[in-house]
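Input for the complex:
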Amino acid sequence: MSYVLAVDQGTTSTRCILFDRRATVVSVVRAEHPQSYPRPGWVEHDAARIWRDVRRLIPQALRDVDPPEVAAIGIANQRETVVLWDRATGVPVAPAIVWQDTRTDVSTIDADLVKSRTGLPPATYFSATKIQWLLDNGMRDRAERGEVLFGTMDSWLIWNLTGGLHITDVTNASRTMLMNLATLDWDDELLDLFRIPRAMLPAIRSSSEVYGTAETVLPGVPIAAAIGDQQAALFGQTCFEPGEAKCTYGTGGFLLMNTGTTPVRSRHGLITTVGYRIGGEPPVFALEGSIAIAGSLVQWVRDGLGLIGTASEIETLAGTVDDNGGCYIVPAFSGLYAPYWHSEARGVIVGLTSYITKGHLARAVLEATGWQTRDVVDAMNADSGLALTALNVDGGMTADNLLMQIVADFLQVPVVRPLVAETVSLGAAYAAGLAVGYWSDLRDLRANRHRAGRWRPTLDSGRREREYARWRRAIDCAVLFSRED
Amino acid sequence: MSHVPGLIQSIERSSAVLRLLAAGPDRLRVKEIADALGLPKSTAHSILRTLEHVGFVEQDTRTARYRLGRGLLDLGSTGIDANELRGRALTWADALAARSGEEVRLGVLDDGAVLVVHHVFRPDDSAQSLDTGIRLPPHATALGKVLLAYSAPAAASVMAGVLSPYTRRTVTDRGDLARMLTGTRARGWALSVEEWRPGLAGIAAPVRTSGGLVVGAVGIAGPVERLTDTRRQARPALVDHVLAAARSISRDVAGS
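Predicted:
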């Protein structure tokens, strides 16, 4: 028997999952790591602690398996988070700056230049300004002397596992705001713009190839994949054809659509990103749109309003009514994102009458996630010229049966839940297994895919479009309300 | 402190805590409760934590004071929301479908029927539609037999009505059903063979919350020849998978 080991180094925890050839989960181990918020807007991780977690978790995941039975290791990781470490000692020189961190400023950046080169609208979210901040705060001299290295979490773990290999994969590199989408290499002009020395950057490799073998923890086992977590979910959901898409529903939602081997530039503020690249094959691109507030709206109903005791009860409450009663909630808690882009907009609840009960509000909460998904999908369809035929879903909110039905109804396409819910880890395992011949090709991977559930659209189109028009008016209200006098 | 021998002291004390909280409109601190009942503070704290676990008291997170919990308002229900149950069962139900190769359903008793609260497709990519929300006859399905076996009132109510025949194998005799329920309790799982649909069988086991209370049933369904052997007995490996899933879900539910 042999297996593939996936390491999913996420924002709040690290998981190691062992898969067999049929993509069945053989073992799962996980460890949470602390989030550090030293100042408002700052979010940091201890990269050394994360490496220690990985080193401890891998043997636990292999409790019933001999190390030689592991055919390959694949890594999926939180994206954009910046780790800087000492080339000679391997010790991080500063706390890792997490993707959520907003300490940096992007207001003076040439947005058109950055967007045309990287496919990304300038945002504090991406790595470049975080690296720049660390350089400007004491690291510049050492970095210019070549003593300090940069990497996202994939690079950091691979460097430690291999004892000094400094690489990243193209999906992670595409989130730094430093990689040129046309050349898939670091862009010299952007490096100048952000004043980042090339010597500190890792080499950019594909997402699926043998980068090297582990020197420690699992000596001799090939390290054969690195891929950003959302792209890993796309790969794990086997969205290999243009037009196939997945949405991961958590506190927010991440929707990625495969757009094939040419990058699609968005006219609706979606992100153009690399989906994956297998060895020397052409890269596959994706459009990415995020739903800022999904599960976090349910959390607000639970913790902020106290209408429910647990998140699951939102469905029970929504089930006490047949429709929203004319009530709509726009959860623009920190502005409206794609495709609206109004950072000053604030949330609104509209359509209130004395008829409205908490059941209607609960319904409107779930519908808000449905409509936000529809908004992103509409933008993707328009940008890509492709029409989504089914939405593959994963994440915690897929337990909400009513929400999944609402999404199917609002998108008018089937919503499909896969049997292996661990899509991020599975994507990393697939990419690694492909590289070492554990699985032979994409079709081989596709054969492992099984539907655990499928929601068919049932809402009649007239009613759907009337509801959609009201949602759009509610969006207008959110924008109007925040307008300065 | 008076205590009647033969009665369980911690239950008497818990009852006193509940009466105390019900007596006034004010929320109480641990120390106030301990002082009022003449208990050590650590004992009062353990009792409150246990009552909180079962939903009979709630603690205000800001003031750390206790009040009666919402669980007391719906003592007639099982205390776990059906959608909450699905959320907790999701991973284990998926694993059961993967291991058994059959479709999985999670059911609860609702108004004399089995309400399907979760359904995982048989992992063979054939065309299937979601059964979540449909109702199944309790006397003719493995899920229903499990739920009836652990609920005497529900069993009595079902037996007071007509046991409709769905196939020629559906149990329609009250005595036969009662014996089946006794057997289910003795084994800890139920089997139904072609009692609801010809050619189909089901194996199910109870999902329990703390204290052993049965809050649902989880089971697989599939063709008779796959679920049973030539003597129409459940295949032991499949029973083990179902029992393991039921135990995992129970652990998750009870730990909440």
